[in-house]
Amino acid sequence: MKAVIPAAGLGTRFLPATKAQPKEMLPVFNKPTIQYVVEEAVSSGIDDILIITGKGKRSIEDHFDRSFELEYSLQNSGKTDYLKEIESISEMADIYYVRQKKQRGLGDAISCAQKHIDGEPFAVLLGDTIAQSEIPCIKQLMNVHEKYKSTVIAIEEVPDERIERYGIIKGNKINDNLYKIDDLVEKPKLEDSPSNLGIIGRYILAPEIFDYINEVSPGVGGEIQLTDALRLLNESYGCIFKGKLYDIGNTVDWLKSSIEIALEHEEVREELKDYLLKILQ
Ligand code: UTP
Q1: Best of 106, 112, 129 to mutate for ligand 1, by most ligand atoms within 8 A of CB?
Q2: Main-chain dihedrals φ then ψ at residue 236, nearest 5 degrees
Q3: Which of 7, 132, 189, 239 has its CA 20 to 30 A from that of 202?
Q4: Coil, strand, or helix at residue 219?
Q5: In the chain, which stretches have pLDDT less than 70?
Q6: CB-ligand 1 contact for 7 (6 Å cutoff)
Q7: How far apart are CA 12 and CA 185, in angstroms?
Q8: Is the shortest distance between the CB of 126 and ligand 1 below 6 Å?
């Protein structure tokens, strides 16, 4: 299965940090966000990844490319650990790029992948969301897809105050982790929301989605919404993600994600914990 990572968005909620650098390249602890996303796809067995980029996103391509000067310099100075790490980034997968010409929304970004995908079901991982779990999030969806041969969308329970930021599903429970989806709505008001099950940015999509994206008109925010195209599919499933999700789309969530992920690293955990306790006193 191939994967598509949309990373062409303007990152408006993160301005001015995203004026001249992609939101997807913002570091969380010691890696840019999009590297976590690529690693999730790779550890799910995917080695063909198409990144949707746009204006001002060159550093994403540079990050996954070889850097001969840097490798040469690390080699000469005997920094072999860094060297290995740097080399491994450019060897992770076959990464392809296509540019979204105008930022017209997630649905439009995904439609840029049509030629590369070539009529097969494919995985989508948003480039600004990190999912950490024992079984990678996209692999959890691939396992459901294997059984149902249909579109599968990762969902999780969303607290009331965040409902308006998510695509929300209406569905029938099949088991503790799985819902058959009846309907979806993008960023509903809390009182209109059909459930508290929010779409978290990981999907296995049937290739028919490209036809439906072409059919939908601009929705919320004047953008071509993927959620609107998903409503037109005959069949889709919502799979509750077992793991921890980190959104880096805005400053506060990025900060929280950075702290939580840093605290997982033994080499800084104690120092960071002491520091946080001290400044909060
Ligand atoms: P977001 O809506 O969170 O990203 O899209 P954004 O548009 O960059 O954010 P704001 O609202 O302006 O702050 C989720 C993912 O989809 C990609 C983004 O890069 C992000 O990884 N995306 C979004 C595209 O590739 N193209 C688009 O037109 C919109």
Answers
A1: 106
A2: -155, 160
A3: 189
A4: coil
A5: none
A6: yes
A7: 23
A8: yes
Amino acid letter, residue 138: I
The token pair that represents 174 in the structure block: 């099949």
Contact 141, 240 (CB under 8 A): no
Buried b or exposed e, range 258-280, using 16+ CB within 10 angstroms: beebbeeeeeeeeeeeeeeeeee
Which atom, in ligand 1's list, is nearest to the CA of 6? Answer: 25
Q: Which two tokens stand for residue 6?
A: 């949309």
Q: Which of 5, 10, 53, 125 is the pocket-test mutation for ligand 1 (most atoms within 8 Å of CB)?
A: 10
Which residue do the tokens 């692999």 mark?
139
130 and 26 in contact (C-beta within 8 Å)?
A: no
C-alpha closest to that of 213 among 238, 186, 231, 236: 231
Structure tokens at 54: 């746009």
Percent of the chain with pLDDT over 90: 96
171: which 2 tokens? 């569905």
End-to-end CA distance of the chain: 50
**pLDDT given at position 219:** 85
The pLDDT score that the predictor gives to residue 121 is 98
Our answer on whether the CB atom of 104 is closer than 6 Å to any ligand 1 atom is yes
For ligand 1, is residue 22 a contact (CB within 6 Å)? no
